[in-house]
């Protein structure tokens, strides 16, 4: 497949695919006209590259881990195992931080809902509901006028 099709199928820009090639993360053959050609397996490879980048891994680590993804056991010596475990631990730390942040945000949302519900003349809008099924205000903020609770 050509680079545009790979970009469309993976949701990755053509520029990013070229960057992946520069970093030796992705390989292509060239047609007689010099156009890049990718095998079907490139779709899954690009998806993995995106996942690893999304987890915050740098290019050099992605390059080291990709062989383990596509050929488990191939480069998995003690050194690589240690690197994979360290990355997993780093990701676990980020997940824990995100959960803490989400919990604090949930507290702020609950406080805002309580304030809006008590300080509003109109009260919460029954038509607007959050993902938890709790009523929310359609226009945010109290509707009692300037300076009124």
The main sheet comes to: 2 strands, antiparallel
Estimated structural class: mainly alpha
Whole-number tally of structural domains? 2
- Count of alpha and pi helical runs: 5
Note down, in words, how this protein is organized.
The chain is mainly alpha-helical and 149 residues long. The protein has 2 domains: 75 residues, Multidrug-efflux Transporter Regulator, Chain: A, Domain 2 (Orthogonal Bundle); 67 residues, no CATH class. Helices cover 57% and strands 7% of the residues. The chain contains 5 helices and 4 strands; from the N terminus they run ααββαααββ. The strands form 2 sheets. A two-stranded antiparallel ribbon has the order 1-2. Helix 3 packs across helix 4. The longest helix is centred in the middle third of the chain and has 42 residues. The protein is flat, with a radius of gyration of 24 Å. This is DNA-binding transcriptional regulator, MerR family. GO terms for molecular function: DNA binding; DNA-binding transcription factor activity.
How would you concisely characterize the structure shown here?
With 149 residues, the protein is mainly α. It has helices at 3-10, 14-22, 41-54, 59-70, 78-119, and strands at residues 29-30, 36-37, 125-129, 135-136. It has 2 domains: 1-75, Multidrug-efflux Transporter Regulator, Chain: A, Domain 2; 77-143, no CATH class.
């Amino acid at each position: 497949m050509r680079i545009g099709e790979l970009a469309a199928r993976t949701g990755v820009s053509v520029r990013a695919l070229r960057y992946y090639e520069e970093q030796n993360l992705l390989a292509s053959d060239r047609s007689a006209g010099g156009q890049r050609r990718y095998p079907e397996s490139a779709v899954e490879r690009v998806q993995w590259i995106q996942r690893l980048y999304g987890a915050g891994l740098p290019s050099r680590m992605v390059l080291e881990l990709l062989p383990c993804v596509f050929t488990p056991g191939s480069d998995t010596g003690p050194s690589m195992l240690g690197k994979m475990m360290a990355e997993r631990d780093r990701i676990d730390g980020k997940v824990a931080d995100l959960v803490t942040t989400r919990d604090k945000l949930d507290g702020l949302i609950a406080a805002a809902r309580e304030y809006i519900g008590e300080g509003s003349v109109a009260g919460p809008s029954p038509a607007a509901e959050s993902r938890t099924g709790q009523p929310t205000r359609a226009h945010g903020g109290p509707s009692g006028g300037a300076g009124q609770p």
